[in-house]
Amino acid sequence: GGIVLKKQSNLSRLLSYAGVHKYFTYASWVLSGISALTALVPFWYIWKIINEALEVSPNFGSAANLTHYGIMAMTYAIISYLIYIGALLCSHLAAFRIAANMRIDITEHISKLPIGFADSFGSGKLRKIINDSTAATETYLAHQLPDKYAAMATPVGLLALLLVFDWRL
To answer: What Gene Ontology terms describe what this protein does at the molecular function level (predicted)?
Structure first.
């Protein structure tokens, strides 16, 4: 047998442009997942509100915890948004670094090509291709990847909620 070289994934190639900033990307994935799970907690408190209201009905004045549950639902909703903002801050830090390093790498590569290469495109068109391509990469890394991890965490959290809820009320 010969030497088997593992093909580098597109994501790992992109992250190689991040240097140490790739850890911000990883942090954004974790924070995004935590945010998605935290965003489900208010539903648990809403369930508790409904459950308590049904237990004391029609004497709603004896429902002692409704305000507390409402405040907790709002608190967890706000916490979820704050964690998501942290996730996006991390993902943007890494994405901006990656896009900048890609532009530098591409520009250095083009500078080594024969002069006629750039003339065949025109400098404006070439610059637009570079900027558009790196901007698309930036969007993917800064928004779509963190959202992917939130989308993966949400069903897990929903399953946990289904196990906690007494759906019969």
So the answer is: ABC-type transporter activity; ATP binding
